[in-house]
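Example 3.2
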Amino acid sequence: MTDFARRLDGVRIAFDAAPGARPVLLVHGFASTAEVTWGGSGWVRALAEAQRGAITPDLRGHGRSDKPHHAADYEPRQLAADLVVVLDTLELERVDVIGYSMGSRVVAALARLVPERVHRLVLGGAGPIELFATWDADAVNRFVAHGDLPADPTIAAVLGPIIASGADLDALVACVQGFAGSTLDVPAGIPQLFVAGGADPITAGIATLAADRGARYLELPGRTHLNALTSREFREAALQFLA
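Structure, written as C-alpha coordinates:
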Protein backbone atom coordinates (compact mmCIF):
# COMPACT_ATOMS: atom_id res chain seq x y z
CA MET A 1 0.00 0.00 0.00
CA THR A 2 1.29 3.44 -0.91
CA ASP A 3 2.14 5.83 1.92
CA PHE A 4 3.05 9.51 1.79
CA ALA A 5 5.72 11.50 3.61
CA ARG A 6 5.12 15.24 3.83
CA ARG A 7 7.70 18.01 3.79
CA LEU A 8 7.15 21.14 5.88
CA ASP A 9 6.36 23.04 2.67
CA GLY A 10 3.51 20.62 2.01
CA VAL A 11 5.13 18.59 -0.81
CA ARG A 12 4.07 14.95 -0.49
CA ILE A 13 6.40 12.09 -1.43
CA ALA A 14 4.80 8.75 -2.26
CA PHE A 15 6.57 5.56 -1.25
CA ASP A 16 6.06 1.85 -0.76
CA ALA A 17 7.80 -0.23 1.89
CA ALA A 18 8.12 -3.97 1.27
CA PRO A 19 8.67 -5.96 4.49
CA GLY A 20 12.01 -7.48 5.39
CA ALA A 21 15.04 -7.01 7.56
CA ARG A 22 17.51 -4.16 7.01
CA PRO A 23 15.45 -2.40 4.32
CA VAL A 24 17.24 -0.90 1.34
CA LEU A 25 16.28 2.52 -0.02
CA LEU A 26 15.94 2.38 -3.84
CA VAL A 27 15.93 5.65 -5.80
CA HIS A 28 14.85 5.79 -9.45
CA GLY A 29 15.98 8.11 -12.23
CA PHE A 30 14.55 10.91 -14.35
CA ALA A 31 11.08 10.49 -15.90
CA SER A 32 10.64 7.06 -14.33
CA THR A 33 8.88 5.74 -11.22
CA ALA A 34 9.72 3.40 -8.38
CA GLU A 35 7.51 0.67 -9.81
CA VAL A 36 8.96 0.84 -13.32
CA THR A 37 12.58 1.00 -12.16
CA TRP A 38 12.60 -1.37 -9.19
CA GLY A 39 9.44 -3.44 -9.39
CA GLY A 40 9.41 -4.21 -13.08
CA SER A 41 13.11 -5.02 -13.24
CA GLY A 42 13.03 -7.56 -10.40
CA TRP A 43 14.93 -5.65 -7.73
CA VAL A 44 12.21 -5.68 -5.07
CA ARG A 45 11.72 -9.40 -5.61
CA ALA A 46 15.48 -10.04 -5.41
CA LEU A 47 15.70 -8.15 -2.13
CA ALA A 48 12.77 -10.15 -0.74
CA GLU A 49 14.50 -13.39 -1.71
CA ALA A 50 17.56 -12.14 0.18
CA GLN A 51 15.24 -11.40 3.15
CA ARG A 52 15.85 -7.68 2.83
CA GLY A 53 13.13 -5.05 2.87
CA ALA A 54 12.75 -2.41 0.13
CA ILE A 55 11.75 1.25 0.35
CA THR A 56 10.75 2.62 -3.05
CA PRO A 57 9.80 6.32 -3.21
CA ASP A 58 8.67 8.24 -6.27
CA LEU A 59 10.87 11.34 -6.54
CA ARG A 60 9.06 14.69 -6.53
CA GLY A 61 7.84 15.51 -10.02
CA HIS A 62 7.38 11.81 -10.76
CA GLY A 63 4.79 9.10 -10.35
CA ARG A 64 2.42 9.53 -7.41
CA SER A 65 4.43 12.25 -5.67
CA ASP A 66 3.61 15.96 -5.83
CA LYS A 67 4.91 17.88 -8.83
CA PRO A 68 5.99 21.47 -8.15
CA HIS A 69 6.86 23.58 -11.21
CA HIS A 70 9.80 25.69 -10.02
CA ALA A 71 13.42 24.82 -10.79
CA ALA A 72 14.48 25.63 -7.22
CA ASP A 73 12.22 22.83 -6.00
CA TYR A 74 14.41 20.29 -7.81
CA GLU A 75 17.84 21.18 -6.51
CA PRO A 76 19.64 18.03 -5.31
CA ARG A 77 19.35 19.05 -1.66
CA GLN A 78 15.57 19.24 -1.98
CA LEU A 79 15.25 15.75 -3.43
CA ALA A 80 17.63 14.44 -0.78
CA ALA A 81 15.57 16.09 1.97
CA ASP A 82 12.50 14.30 0.59
CA LEU A 83 14.26 10.99 1.20
CA VAL A 84 15.11 12.04 4.76
CA VAL A 85 11.40 12.63 5.41
CA VAL A 86 10.63 9.16 4.06
CA LEU A 87 13.20 7.63 6.41
CA ASP A 88 11.81 9.67 9.30
CA THR A 89 8.28 8.49 8.53
CA LEU A 90 9.49 4.88 8.67
CA GLU A 91 11.58 5.61 11.78
CA LEU A 92 14.75 4.34 10.11
CA GLU A 93 17.99 5.79 11.42
CA ARG A 94 20.46 4.32 8.90
CA VAL A 95 20.02 2.42 5.63
CA ASP A 96 21.79 0.99 2.64
CA VAL A 97 20.93 2.92 -0.52
CA ILE A 98 20.84 2.11 -4.24
CA GLY A 99 20.37 4.78 -6.90
CA TYR A 100 20.17 4.55 -10.66
CA SER A 101 20.80 7.25 -13.28
CA MET A 102 19.61 10.58 -11.84
CA GLY A 103 18.79 8.62 -8.71
CA SER A 104 22.50 8.05 -8.13
CA ARG A 105 23.01 11.80 -7.90
CA VAL A 106 20.04 12.10 -5.55
CA VAL A 107 21.48 9.48 -3.19
CA ALA A 108 24.89 11.16 -3.37
CA ALA A 109 23.15 14.36 -2.26
CA LEU A 110 21.48 12.38 0.53
CA ALA A 111 24.89 11.18 1.71
CA ARG A 112 26.16 14.76 1.76
CA LEU A 113 23.10 16.00 3.62
CA VAL A 114 22.93 13.28 6.31
CA PRO A 115 26.05 11.08 6.06
CA GLU A 116 25.28 9.48 9.40
CA ARG A 117 22.12 7.92 7.94
CA VAL A 118 23.75 6.22 4.94
CA HIS A 119 25.48 2.89 5.56
CA ARG A 120 26.56 1.83 2.05
CA LEU A 121 25.87 3.24 -1.42
CA VAL A 122 25.39 1.59 -4.79
CA LEU A 123 25.47 4.14 -7.62
CA GLY A 124 24.44 2.84 -11.02
CA GLY A 125 24.01 4.36 -14.46
CA ALA A 126 25.73 7.68 -13.76
CA GLY A 127 29.05 9.25 -14.71
CA PRO A 128 31.10 12.31 -13.76
CA ILE A 129 29.40 14.44 -16.44
CA GLU A 130 25.81 15.31 -15.53
CA LEU A 131 23.64 15.00 -18.64
CA PHE A 132 21.32 17.97 -18.02
CA ALA A 133 24.29 20.33 -17.64
CA THR A 134 25.20 19.62 -21.28
CA TRP A 135 21.73 20.58 -22.56
CA ASP A 136 20.86 24.01 -23.91
CA ALA A 137 17.96 25.30 -21.80
CA ASP A 138 16.41 27.28 -24.66
CA ALA A 139 16.53 24.22 -26.92
CA VAL A 140 14.77 22.18 -24.24
CA ASN A 141 12.04 24.79 -23.87
CA ARG A 142 11.51 25.08 -27.64
CA PHE A 143 11.31 21.32 -28.03
CA VAL A 144 8.82 20.92 -25.20
CA ALA A 145 6.67 23.92 -26.20
CA HIS A 146 6.75 23.69 -29.99
CA GLY A 147 8.40 20.43 -30.97
CA ASP A 148 11.41 22.17 -32.52
CA LEU A 149 14.09 19.52 -32.92
CA PRO A 150 17.24 20.44 -30.95
CA ALA A 151 20.77 20.10 -32.30
CA ASP A 152 21.61 17.79 -29.41
CA PRO A 153 19.85 14.50 -30.25
CA THR A 154 19.83 13.33 -26.63
CA ILE A 155 17.28 16.02 -25.74
CA ALA A 156 14.73 14.61 -28.18
CA ALA A 157 15.68 11.02 -27.34
CA VAL A 158 15.06 11.54 -23.62
CA LEU A 159 12.17 14.01 -23.68
CA GLY A 160 10.34 12.79 -26.79
CA PRO A 161 8.85 9.64 -25.22
CA ILE A 162 8.01 11.61 -22.07
CA ILE A 163 6.04 14.17 -24.06
CA ALA A 164 4.20 11.38 -25.85
CA SER A 165 3.31 9.71 -22.53
CA GLY A 166 1.39 12.74 -21.29
CA ALA A 167 3.62 13.37 -18.28
CA ASP A 168 3.62 16.66 -16.36
CA LEU A 169 6.06 18.47 -18.63
CA ASP A 170 6.30 21.62 -16.52
CA ALA A 171 7.49 19.53 -13.58
CA LEU A 172 10.02 17.58 -15.62
CA VAL A 173 11.42 20.71 -17.30
CA ALA A 174 11.78 22.27 -13.83
CA CYS A 175 13.59 19.11 -12.75
CA VAL A 176 16.01 19.40 -15.68
CA GLN A 177 16.71 23.03 -14.78
CA GLY A 178 17.04 22.55 -11.04
CA PHE A 179 19.09 19.38 -11.12
CA ALA A 180 21.56 20.37 -13.86
CA GLY A 181 25.18 20.16 -12.78
CA SER A 182 24.57 17.95 -9.75
CA THR A 183 27.52 15.81 -8.70
CA LEU A 184 28.33 12.30 -7.49
CA ASP A 185 30.38 13.64 -4.57
CA VAL A 186 30.03 11.50 -1.45
CA PRO A 187 31.60 12.09 1.97
CA ALA A 188 34.66 10.02 2.74
CA GLY A 189 34.04 6.93 4.82
CA ILE A 190 30.85 5.73 3.11
CA PRO A 191 31.59 2.54 1.11
CA GLN A 192 30.58 2.90 -2.53
CA LEU A 193 29.99 0.54 -5.44
CA PHE A 194 29.71 2.03 -8.94
CA VAL A 195 27.97 0.03 -11.67
CA ALA A 196 27.75 0.91 -15.37
CA GLY A 197 26.72 -0.73 -18.60
CA GLY A 198 29.64 -1.19 -20.95
CA ALA A 199 27.58 0.30 -23.80
CA ASP A 200 26.19 3.24 -21.80
CA PRO A 201 27.72 6.57 -22.90
CA ILE A 202 26.07 8.40 -19.99
CA THR A 203 28.51 6.73 -17.59
CA ALA A 204 31.68 7.76 -19.45
CA GLY A 205 34.56 8.27 -17.04
CA ILE A 206 33.03 6.41 -14.09
CA ALA A 207 35.76 3.76 -13.92
CA THR A 208 38.38 6.46 -13.42
CA LEU A 209 36.25 8.24 -10.82
CA ALA A 210 35.79 5.00 -8.88
CA ALA A 211 39.52 4.27 -9.02
CA ASP A 212 40.36 7.76 -7.80
CA ARG A 213 38.09 7.23 -4.79
CA GLY A 214 39.29 3.71 -4.07
CA ALA A 215 35.71 2.56 -4.60
CA ARG A 216 34.51 -0.67 -6.13
CA TYR A 217 33.46 -0.68 -9.79
CA LEU A 218 31.51 -3.18 -11.87
CA GLU A 219 31.12 -2.91 -15.64
CA LEU A 220 28.31 -4.86 -17.30
CA PRO A 221 29.57 -5.86 -20.78
CA GLY A 222 27.23 -4.90 -23.61
CA ARG A 223 24.60 -3.41 -21.32
CA THR A 224 23.04 -0.05 -22.17
CA HIS A 225 21.56 2.61 -19.93
CA LEU A 226 18.10 1.09 -20.42
CA ASN A 227 18.85 -2.58 -19.81
CA ALA A 228 21.63 -2.49 -17.20
CA LEU A 229 19.05 -2.61 -14.42
CA THR A 230 17.77 -6.01 -15.52
CA SER A 231 21.23 -7.56 -15.21
CA ARG A 232 21.38 -10.42 -12.72
CA GLU A 233 25.08 -9.64 -12.28
CA PHE A 234 24.18 -6.11 -11.18
CA ARG A 235 21.67 -7.36 -8.60
CA GLU A 236 23.96 -10.05 -7.24
CA ALA A 237 26.93 -7.67 -6.96
CA ALA A 238 24.80 -5.07 -5.18
CA LEU A 239 23.35 -7.56 -2.72
CA GLN A 240 26.79 -8.97 -1.95
CA PHE A 241 28.20 -5.48 -1.45
CA LEU A 242 25.36 -4.49 0.87
CA ALA A 243 25.65 -7.71 2.85
